[in-house]
Here is the input.
Amino acid sequence: MASTAAPISSTLEGTQSTQATAPKQPPKSVTGSQEPPKQRTETKPKKPAPKATKTSSAAAAASKPNKYLPTDRITFIRQLDLLRGWAAASGPNNKIVSNDEVAKIVKMATSTLSMNNAFYAQSGFLTKADGGYIPAQEVFSFLRNYEWSPESAFTKMAPVLSKTWFAEVLLPKLSFGVLTTDEAIQCLAYACNADPEYRSQLRFLLDYLGNGGIIEWDGAQVRKGAHSVTVTSTAPNTDIVQTPSNPPPATEPPKRGGPTFFGTTEGAVNFNVSVRVDMGEFASWKPERIAAFFNGMAQVLAAKADVEKVGEEPK
Here is the structure.
């Protein structure tokens, strides 16, 4: 009996070791074939697509002024120096001048100096030519008068300043009244499609007009200046139909060239004498002096009447 127990024990141990070491088999499909193990794939979250934005170039083009403005990288006083430099470099022969020639005179870098060329050309201060620019005659007058009167020399630029686009914008409005500085700058901004970021450059336009006498600007208010040029028309209005009820204005017949009080004839210089005596002066006069004064006036009037009567007699 003892000899038969040992094989059973060893058999059981072999069976347990076999079960312990047997590898796990993959599950079988319904058809009996083994299915390959499923591979787990990880999906990363997608990043949101960037939102579409307007291009900066298109926005810059929309806000860019449609007129050339003076640069704000050069002070106004130095901008006037540049104009005198152009005239000095051109000389009495009005020769064409390049940026390099002017830069040597005003002691400024060529790249900085050229920033105002487009504004000067559009305003009529300079004329573009092959190889450079030619200053306007008003710029030469500015240069010459600066040696005698630096404070008022820029008023010599008034004729060309009055034709600039910024003068043509403000002068009609100033003819009806005073503008504040903000109102004047807004008028200029609307005219050239400029954003508020160009305010400092628009103020330079007021500096040009103010120093040229086109406007009077005290920093707070803008008025029409003494050198402003108002364009008027003396031509007849041909749009009005001339009818018997609306006849053309009668023209005064030419006066006959007879002698006048001072013996002058037509085409000569006529004198007009006006005497004004204050009542306070009469109070200190003696009666004899007053009588002599009015007696003399009577004699003058009588002589004048006699001379004019002779001139009206038919020949």
